[in-house]
């Protein structure tokens, strides 16, 4: 593998007709933080050496002086396209650490919002992939559905991108009443849009020429290199944490895992896009499960405010990383069920 030392060595070996140019590091909005060391001979690129890993937000260090609740806004910034999924992943990890059981309705809403977020994320992923390959139209086809998904996030959390929707023990708040008709419309329109985009790309001969046989990686190499998500499944590894290690009741949802065979760009596209379709289907199933469930959406009496010494359940601690991990004591994790909330008109059983 090429190292930066070998690049430095190659500089010494260059004659006067060649030149070294640094391309990047580029901003994350240009599809990845990447530096490329280019060797030029005139206007011809004779060698390009990529170097990854210029992005580190330092959230772990920031978290050393924050409570578990205060850390939630930092998880929004880990992926602007699907902030809610990062909210959910972090909150679920803390709840597992503290042995907190969240209400069923909170789990169902988390699944629904996560799958809607997954749809919006894959719309951007596939659309931008198409733009990079030369198919700009695909990026615009589903923009309406993506914006509708962000409208849903804004209605539920008050924010389109940086949602901070979860709390340790549940959610920021319940789903508002106006959320229901918009989500129902989204589930209908998104299915049609997904089919339309797949007709545009999947059997397109130009798309085949530019994706099939490109960037092939084997299943063994994908595992060794730490591939995850659609890229891992495109290489033929049927790994999905929702199946392998179910959480938030995913074991009750019926969905399959799209798996590729060649591990090339085309298989990665299919893996991501069919996962988008599965996420849409999971949203529909979750929708039918929770929309008539009037149970509570937050663990009873779980504090949502910053750490204060006067707050029951807290103990004083320093802000070091070791002590902040044990700063929570939740005497209510196994409390009796909270009082039944008022049932909205759209959640009635009639």
User: Domains counted in the coordinates: how many?
Assistant: 2
Q: What's the β-strand tally?
A: 5
Strand content: 5-15%
In order across it, which strands form the biggest sheet? 1-2-3
In DSSP terms, counting alpha (H) and pi (I) runs of 4 or more, how many helices? 14
H and E order: HEEEHHHHHHEEHHHHHHH
Helix/strand-derived category reads mainly alpha
Distance N terminus to C terminus?
66 Å
Describe this structure in words.
The chain has 350 residues and is mainly alpha-helical. The protein has two domains: 4-52, no CATH class; 65-290, Cytochrome-c3 Hydrogenase, chain B (Orthogonal Bundle), CATH 1.10.645.10. It is built from 14 helices and five strands. The chain has helices spanning 4-13, 59-63, 72-76, 83-98, 104-133, 136-141, 143-157, 179-201, 205-211, 219-224, 229-234, 241-244, 265-290, 321-324, and strands at 18-23, 34-41, 44-52, 166-167, 170-171. The chain has a three-stranded antiparallel beta sheet with strand order 1-2-3, covered by helices on one side. Strand 4 and strand 5 form a beta hairpin. The longest helix is centred in the middle third of the chain and has 30 residues, at 104-133. It starts with a helix and ends in a 26-residue tail after the last helix. Residues 300-350 have low confidence and may be disordered.
Question: What's the gist of this structure?
Answer:
With 350 residues, this protein is mainly alpha-helical. It is built from 14 helices and five strands. It is globular, with a radius of gyration of 24 Å.
